[in-house]
């Protein structure tokens, strides 16, 4: 009998991690989730997964590795709030760097085969050319993406010790289950506000752009990354730029609520343009984004509608 693969997902009660857990379970894999529920929700956790409420910084993380013996780790737990990272860079680095090292040490001690890491478009900083390719200069401009780049370097170090890895530099991911509180995704904030008759805020003139990728496409890239050559780093985005004004208009049209956003001064350190060239993952792993923005927005709106 072929042994079932055991996947451990850190951050598996969160937005992307929980969708990933659902897909891995569909493929017949055994899924272990480690999440401290600081942002994630118990209701996101697939009933067929084994759930541990634990911090990735906790030395007792080792007990989970010892008991469950995962073959592969998807490392998606992180402090993801850029503004929080500027206000509390030490707290941010503790989770995103030291927490990750704790995960990596356990990978080493318990002979995990591979780790897939959720990195970010933020490692490039303000792009010099668009769509941005993996060979673009790296220049993160705030602590959160600095931690992502730092972890990529640690992954190379652990690779030299025998741990296989793939890092996915995601663009802006959106979809059902994304938080609309705090500095959650702009898509979920706009949808939630419009459905509830509330005004949204747009920072600056709204002409800043982002590359919005639907969560199912982000998950598909993670699954394909299982067969990526060791040490691969891939951009994962649509290659299409959408301005915040355009995004608002699309959601506004879709929800049918004519509420105009409030424009306020731009936030310090915000990137003006963002869009990823993902031809490397297309060529090597045959990944393609399947979801058009309008379709993904409809799915997300339906989820919020049923939730409210
Ligand atoms: N959403 C995006 O647009 C995007 C873009 C690029 C990269 N990423 C990365 O993808 C990953 C998942 O992001 P998401 O949008 O699903 O965010 P999320 O906040 O929904 O998920 C992160 C999860 O990690 C958990 N977590 C946080 N700190 C923890 C700790 N110390 N110990 C254990 N669990 C902890 C949270 O409770 C949460 O469930 C993150 O690493 C994020 O940096 C996300």
Automatic annotation (TrEMBL):
The cross-references to Pfam families, in alphabetical order and at most eight, read:
Epimerase (PF01370)
Gene3D superfamilies xref list: NAD(P)-binding Rossmann-like Domain, UDP-galactose 4-epimerase, domain 1
Q: Organism's domain of life?
A: Bacteria
The record places domain NAD-dependent epimerase/dehydratase at: 8-237
PANTHER family reported in the protein's UniProt record: DTDP-D-GLUCOSE 4,6-DEHYDRATASE-RELATED (PTHR43000)
What family name appears in the similarity comment?
A: Belongs to the NAD(P)-dependent epimerase/dehydratase family.
Q: What is this protein called?
A: UDP-glucose 4-epimerase
State the organism of origin.
Candidatus Nealsonbacteria bacterium RBG_13_42_11
């Amino acid at each position: 009998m072929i042994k079932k693969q055991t996947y451990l997902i850190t951050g598996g009660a969160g937005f992307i991690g929980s969708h990933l857990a659902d897909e891995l379970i569909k493929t017949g894999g055994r899924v272990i989730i480690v999440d401290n529920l600081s942002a994630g929700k118990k209701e996101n956790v697939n009933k067929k997964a084994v759930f541990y409420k634990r911090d990735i910084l906790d030395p007792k993380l080792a007990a989970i590795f010892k008991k469950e013996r995962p073959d592969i780790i998807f490392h998606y737990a992180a402090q993801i709030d850029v503004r929080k990272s500027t206000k509390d860079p030490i707290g941010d680095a503790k989770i995103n760097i030291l927490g990750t090292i704790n995960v990596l040490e356990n990978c080493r001690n318990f002979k995990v085969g591979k780790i897939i890491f959720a990195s970010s478009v933020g490692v490039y900083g303000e792009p010099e050319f668009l769509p941005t390719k993996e060979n673009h200069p790296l220049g993160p401009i705030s602590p959160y993406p600095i931690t992502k780049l730092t972890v990529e370097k640690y992954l190379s170090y652990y690779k030299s010790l025998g741990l296989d890895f793939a890092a996915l530099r995601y663009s802006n991911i959106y979809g059902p289950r994304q938080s609309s509180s705090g500095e959650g995704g702009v898509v979920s904030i706009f949808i939630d506000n419009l459905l509830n008759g509330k005004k949204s805020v747009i920072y600056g003139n709204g002409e800043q752009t982002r590359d919005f990728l639907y969560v199912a496409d982000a998950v598909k890239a993670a699954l394909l990354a299982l067969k990526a050559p060791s040490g691969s780093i891939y951009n994962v985005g649509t290659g299409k730029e959408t301005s915040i004004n355009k995004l608002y208009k699309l959601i506004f049209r879709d929800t049918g609520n004519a509420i105009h956003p409030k424009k306020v001064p731009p936030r310090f350190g915000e990137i003006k343009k963002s869009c990823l060239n993902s031809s490397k993952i297309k060529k090597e792993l045959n990944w393609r984004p399947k979801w058009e923005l309008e379709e993904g927005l409809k799915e997300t709106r339906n989820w919020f509608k049923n939730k409210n």
